[in-house]
């Protein structure tokens, strides 16, 4: 199976609130796919529909070949799911948590810790912490344990819902290295995040804002398709110039960083003289789309 996710027209309504509307996604095996958007944009609701946790109000499709409306239990068994909050048993040890999740997925284990559990302990460098109570682990090590439990049954689709929220920069970097190993092994990885600096890591992205899908593509494609002109440089009074630019409808954003002014515009003619052109970022593209 090369297509892990193929859904179309997904929508979710909670009473009068429409949390997600008309979202269509396709994710291939061995692809790192990101869902990018601010808090409250509908990312988690979309992911929960794909995981079979909540039923869509409209739309349909398949995840791992299973219909999301009829086969939610099969989808749950086939995916690995890691939430933003630490969802393991804090009063159990690292080893006990791994044994529990191995049992949930019907994997055999021995008292000598052989087999898949031993592989996970080694792969995530948890061997020396096997007897440590999970609740006493630091944020980075909790993240490793959660990922080890989520992948213990070798899922074909790994779903990560805001996995790096509240984690220090070094642990975030190490986490993405571990995720890279999953992708190279052929696992499809779907990850939601509101960290714009993580966007460049994904093979493809979907921008979601106020429940709507604003665009899909590679980071380079989304940046190029935004049609923006970006420039920056030092000016004598950046705050005053930024204030004047704010009234120009062609200017998306004029940001001041010390003596440096950075301008994002839809028209090159709106860029003040003296600023040098720089690369359009994913954050530039997202801000432009949402405004």
Describe this structure in words.
The protein is an alpha/beta fold and 291 residues long. It contains 9 helices and 14 strands. The protein has 2 domains: 3-217, P-loop containing nucleotide triphosphate hydrolases (Rossmann fold); 224-290. The chain has helices at residues 43-50, 72-78, 94-104, 116-123, 139-150, 169-184, 219-225, 238-245, 282-290, and strands at residues 3-14, 17-28, 32-36, 58-63, 66-67, 79-82, 157-161, 188-193, 204-209, 212-217, 229-234, 251-257, 260-265, 276-277. The strands form 3 sheets. It has a 6-stranded mixed sheet, sandwiched between helices. α3 packs across α4 and α3 (94-104) runs parallel beside α5 (139-150).
Brief account:
The chain is an alpha/beta fold.
Radius of gyration from CA coordinates: 22 Å
Total DSSP E strands: 14
Strand order of the largest sheet: 6-7-8-3-9-10
Chain oligomer state: single chain
Question: Gap between N and C termini, in Å?
Answer: 39 Å
CATH T-level topology of the largest domain = Rossmann fold
The ordered H/E elements are EEEHEEHEHHHEHEEEHEHEEEH
Based on Cα principal axes, name the global outline.
globular
Q: What share of residues are in beta strands?
A: 25-35%
Structural class: alpha/beta
What percentage of residues falls in helices of 4 or more residues?
25-40%
CATH superfamily of the largest domain: P-loop containing nucleotide triphosphate hydrolases
DSSP summary: helix tally: 9
Low-confidence stretches: none
Count of distinct structural domains: 2
